């Protein structure tokens, strides 16, 4: 297993298509894809990388703050509850749309284990389960797309001017 200092971040970026005089507007049809190591420490590294990408795209600070929280929730969900590999995709749709799309795709849920008969009751030790509410509260739209070998959780955030 690699240490966190040895991570290699495969990435695919589609450059922004903007004109030189459009420095105050968001780029159009731009996408950033980042594979995520399947370790808890990856969440903060993915968040830092996303902050850099969103700054390059000139996404306003308030939207960036909300996006980073959504990214944290979706990536944590993929690392804790799903099978690897997991990939983060950030995209800005065509010009005129004021939305940021955040997607995290994984290889589907981890098979459920049977609880121990004498173990703690799930309600007594519930430390998770709030992520969907956070994503719903911060996004204009959100959802899940399930396919035979992958699951994508996505959220669209309105970009405030």
Q: Tell the overall outline.
A: globular
How do the SSEs run, as a string of H and E? EEHHEEHEE
Number of helices: 3
Percent of residues in helices comes to 25-40%
Q: Major sheet, described briefly?
A: 6 strands, antiparallel
Strand content: 25-35%
Number of strands: 6
Short description:
This protein is an alpha+beta fold. It contains three helices and six strands; from the N terminus they run ββααββαββ. It has a six-stranded antiparallel β-sheet, covered by helices on one side.
Task: Outline the secondary-structure elements.
Elements: E1 11-14, E2 30-36, H1 42-56, H2 61-81, E3 86-92, E4 99-106, H3 131-138, E5 141-147, E6 150-158
Antiparallel strand pairs: 1-2, 2-3, 3-4, 4-6, 5-6
Helix pairs in contact: 1-2, 2-3
Question: Which properties best describe this structure?
Answer:
single chain, alpha+beta, 6 strands, 27% helix
């Amino acid at each position: 297993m690699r240490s966190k200092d040895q991570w290699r971040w495969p990435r695919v970026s589609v450059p922004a298509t903007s004109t030189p005089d459009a420095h105050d507007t968001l780029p159009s049809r731009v996408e950033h894809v980042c594979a995520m190591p399947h370790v808890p420490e990856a969440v903060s590294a993915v968040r830092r990388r996303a902050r850099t990408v969103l700054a390059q795209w000139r996404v306003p600070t308030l939207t960036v703050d909300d996006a980073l929280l959504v990214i944290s929730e979706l990536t944590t969900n993929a690392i804790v509850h799903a099978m690897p590999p997991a990939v983060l995709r950030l995209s800005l749709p065509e010009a005129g749309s004021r939305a940021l799309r955040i997607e995290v795709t994984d290889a589907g849920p981890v098979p459920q284990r049977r609880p121990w008969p004498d173990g703690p009751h799930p309600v007594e030790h519930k430390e998770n389960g709030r992520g969907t509410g956070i994503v719903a509260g911060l996004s204009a739209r959100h959802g899940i797309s399930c396919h035979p070998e992958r699951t994508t959780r996505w959220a669209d955030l309105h970009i405030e001017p």
